[in-house]
Specification:
alpha/beta; five-stranded mixed beta sheet; three-stranded antiparallel beta sheet; 12 strands; 24% strand; globular
Length: 292
């Protein structure tokens, strides 16, 4: 039986309860999950799951599959443990080029990598420039915006960054809360200084004539300090804003403010242990987007 991928897919559906959860965990599209299940059931000659209005539930065959899969996973973990005891594993520095805001939003993935590779450390090159991976300037890049199209690179979609508009409580008390896009013309903002406006700021410049930027910086932390001090309104990733109780959501996330994020590695180094281990950490922490 040559159905390892299908077997793994069915196990994740059984383990996490829904096709959507398995899709998110494995980093593949829902259609791929369903196709794998159909193929596995055809191979087994029976149903692994009951389909109903609430989703997928295990049949008797499915229950048996789950027991086998759990035992197999445990054996793999034991094998990895034995293998790790025989070799030093991954060590040394993993270099990532990215923007400071992405370094912040990927913190859980970086932590996962470090926890599972105690002999390795991570160094983030914070830059808006495109680092030449083919010259070894970094092991990989996390990029925002349009999909990189260099044929020598392996490019994978990551979960987009959802942004909203935020201001401090002191700013709202002094200037009021905007009630519409049109009312944003009566307010002041905190912006970026590098390059042409993209993403949320391109939207802002288009929809708010003569937008007033009272503070601009290419450094995330200085922009955060500015918004917390009450200087103006600022776009911020929702995940980061949740960690700052002093902020008030001025306007909720807008699809037009969503930023596409890409994992980029050179074809010659994509399969190396360090890069694959970091990619695994991103997948485990839910950063990989569903593939279409």
């Amino acid at each position: 039986m040559d159905k390892w991928n299908e077997f793994r897919t069915a196990y994740h559906v059984a383990k996490y309860g829904t096709v959507s959860a398995a899709s998110e965990r494995l980093g593949v599209h829902r259609a791929t999950i369903i196709r794998h299940i159909d193929s596995l059931e055809a191979e087994l000659g029976g149903k692994v799951f009951f389909r109903n209005a609430r989703g997928y539930s295990l049949t008797e065959i499915g229950e048996d599959l789950l027991r086998v899969a759990e035992a197999t996973e445990d054996q793999f973990k034991q094998f990895i443990g034995r293998s790790g005891a025989r070799s030093p594993g991954i060590s040394g520095e993993l270099v990532i080029s990215t923007l400071d805001v992405l370094c912040e939003t990927m913190a859980a993935g970086i932590r996962h990598y470090i926890e599972h590779n105690p002999e390795s450390n991570v160094r983030c090159i914070v830059t808006g420039e495109i680092v030449k991976l083919e010259y070894g300037e970094a092991h990989l890049s996390i990029r925002a915006g349009a999909k990189p199209n260099d044929e020598d690179y392996v490019v994978l979609p990551l979960r987009p960054v959802e942004s909203a508009l935020y201001a401090s409580k002191s700013y709202i008390q002094a200037n009021g809360l905007p009630t519409s896009v049109e009312s944003l013309t009566d307010h002041q903002f905190i912006g970026l200084t590098h390059g042409q406006p993209t993403g949320p700021y391109a939207w802002l410049n288009k929809h708010v004539p003569d937008v007033v930027y009272r503070f601009e910086s290419s450094n995330l932390h200085s922009r955060v300090r500015a918004v917390l001090s009450g200087i103006g309104i600022m776009f911020m990733p929702v995940d980061l804003a949740k960690e700052m109780p002093g902020l008030v959501e001025v306007m909720p996330p807008n699809r037009a403010w969503r930023t596409k994020i890409w994992f980029v590695a050179h074809g010659a180094t994509h399969r190396t242990a360090k890069v694959q281990s970091f990619l695994y950490s991103l997948r485990e922490e839910g950063y990989l987007a569903r593939k279409v």
